Amino acid sequence: MKNRENYRKERIDRCIKARSDDIYALSSYKEMWYLIFPRVVPIIGIAILAYFLPLYWKKVVITTCIVAMLAVSWDFLSSCGLLSLGQALFFGIGSYTAGCLNHYFHVPIYLTIPIATICGGFISTILLLPVIRLRGIYFAMVTLILPLMLARGIEATHIFGGNEGITGLSPFPNVWVELTFIIAGMWAALFALRRFISSDYGLIFVSIRDNDRATMASGINIYSFKAQALFIGSSICAFCGAFMTHSYMFTGIPVFTMEFSILPIAASAIGGIGTLAGPLLGAFILVPLSEILREFGTLRVVFYGLVLVVCVVALPEGIFHYLSRKYNEMERWVRLE
Predict the structure, then answer these.
(1) How many helices (H) and strands (E) does the chain have?
(2) Number of Cβ within a 10 Å radius of residue 10
């Protein structure tokens, strides 16, 4: 081994000529495969894994995809300058909308989910529109309180089934349809948001997060764009709520539980905030890990928390950033001049 005292480690990019962020000048199949590999392998891997797992783990994959979509939605809102703790609010509104349409009006399942997705996004946006001017922790506090208020309101007034909730809702035909539907929805949400946020129109949302005052000084109505971001992010969560309502054939107060707000944030912190793909990766680590640790009983929380702390301390930038850097850069030792 060479004497490393006279050498230093140098990082260099794997050269792929890029004309823009998403247009590349490729000169060989090797370069084409280099770009396609990190995008195609997760899609094929999750599809194959999901369809060959036993029934219990198929349900875990479905839950993982739902958490992944909630995490991607949270990351999108964060990228637009909206610090949200209200994924449970969006999720619960979508769940109750789908459940009420199916139970009281006998709307079929293939209509309840799209209607609940749009209506859930619209209702959530209307609810938060009066506080859209709040920033940072103040906006987050409102999004944290609203689902608690709605849950207690339903409990006190006994509407929508009260504490018992609404049961006996229309299920999916079989678990294969559930898997295909939620996996397709997850990838569609991820790639659509990645495309959107990198477009010229999407860059306005990012600029609001970077410096909202400078964006406002440019003559842009940032509150209009924040409302649009809120509608997009909450619609994704409402879709998840509507889907889970039909998957479990139930909706009730538990859909407003804080787990649907905290877990997406933990997945984003583990995977890498600001990447959209990182929160999805974090969800596919945390949710299966939680199930694996279930056999440890009460010690499960201890091991689970320990893993979270180790990941955050060892890779504060997030696992996705680390993997992306290792994939796109090479390291070599060079002699000091």
Answers:
(1) 13, 6
(2) 11
Grade residue 62 by pLDDT with cuts at 50, 70 and 90. Answer: very high
Let me know if 113 is exposed, middle or buried by CB neighbors in 10 A (0-12, 13-18, 19+).
buried
CA distance 185 to 174: 17
Q: What is the pTM of this model?
A: 0.87
Count Cβ atoms within 10 A of the Cβ of residue 115 and give its class: 0-12 exposed, 13-18 middle, 19 or more buried. Answer: middle
b/e map of 30-47 (b: 16 or more CB within 10 Å)?
ebeebeeeeeeebeeebe
Q: How far apart are CA 100 and CA 224, in angstroms?
A: 30
- 25: how many CB neighbours lie within 10 A of its CB? 9
Q: Say if residues 97 and 214 touch (Cβ distance below 8 Å).
A: no
Decide: 120 and 289 in contact? Cβ < 8 Å.
no
**How far, rounded to the nearest angstrom, does the alpha carbon of residue 198 sit from its chain's CA centroid?**
17
For residues 189 and 69, the answer to whether their CB atoms sit within 8 Å is yes
Q: Which residue matches tokens 């689970």?
A: 304
Give the model confidence (pLDDT) of 292-327 as tens digits.
888 777 777 787 788 888 888 888 888 888 888 888
Among 221, 264, 314, 247, residue whose Cα is nearest residue 69: 264
Q: Which helix (H) or strand (E) holds 335?
A: strand 329-335
Alpha helices in 218-258 (DSSP H): 222-248
- By the 8 A CB rule, do 200 and 282 touch? no
Confidence of residue 205 (pLDDT cuts 50, 70, 90): confident
Distance CA 281, CA 202 (A): 23
SS3 for 275?
coil
